[in-house]
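Researcher: Next entry in the queue.
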Amino acid sequence: MKIFSYLVVGLFIASALTGCTKNVLDYGETEKLTSDQALLKINYASYYYNNRAIAIKINDKRVSNVITARTPFPGGGYNTGGSSTADFLSVTPGNLKLSIILPKKKDDGTDSLVLYSTTFQIQAGKNYVAHITDTAAFTKNVLTEESFVRPDTAYCKYRFINLMPNVPSVDLYYGTSATDNTKDSLIAGNVNYLNITNEIKLRSAQSKTWKIRPAGAAITTATVLANYTSASTFLNQRVYTIFASGYSGITTAPRRPYVSFFLIR
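Model: Structure for this entry, 265 residues:
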């Protein structure tokens, strides 16, 4: 199973070149995606108390390294584990079995325990994210279909999903700082648990702080469940998923609330 990075390569030709050899850029092993394949990313947001390291299996074959909670795979994100690339796995369409497994203490590639397993119906030529949240018998999943269409220049595009098990509905804001709430703007309101919004288009290159509040809560610092600031969440023509995760009322890692991002494109 291969990981595909969607790279946009600009070719710059100098006006006067003499005595130069041809430059060849090596991007490693690549494979053209065919119409009978699909793409999948797994957003693992199950917050166990000990933040246990897990691995991901697809159709009983391990496809990931060992990761912990809040680590989209492959690719990572912002305010997450992992790197920050728009990577996906290529998968065979049809009935796909996804398993979250606990490796043995001395990881020899075999399972100590299957924490969660589910199946999805995957269609050829489509792009998906499988979101996994909560723990043990309460573990839930959401499969979202993703668009790779970029916004126009000077804009970025988002969708927001609520993965907070004990917050039935949340509001997403951004403002000028974590403590100044006077200029907070509502970006997505009343987003229910396990629901994802339609696309949201915003200007790129902004300096803003993202905030999560319970739906309908007063716009004060006290009501903020989580906040995050990064210029990387406003990159030109990027496509993001924003996700709220963790548990309201918990103030320490790894189970406290977070607002995080990962790249679709």
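Model: Residues 5-28 have pLDDT under 50 and may be disordered.
Researcher: Noted, moving on.
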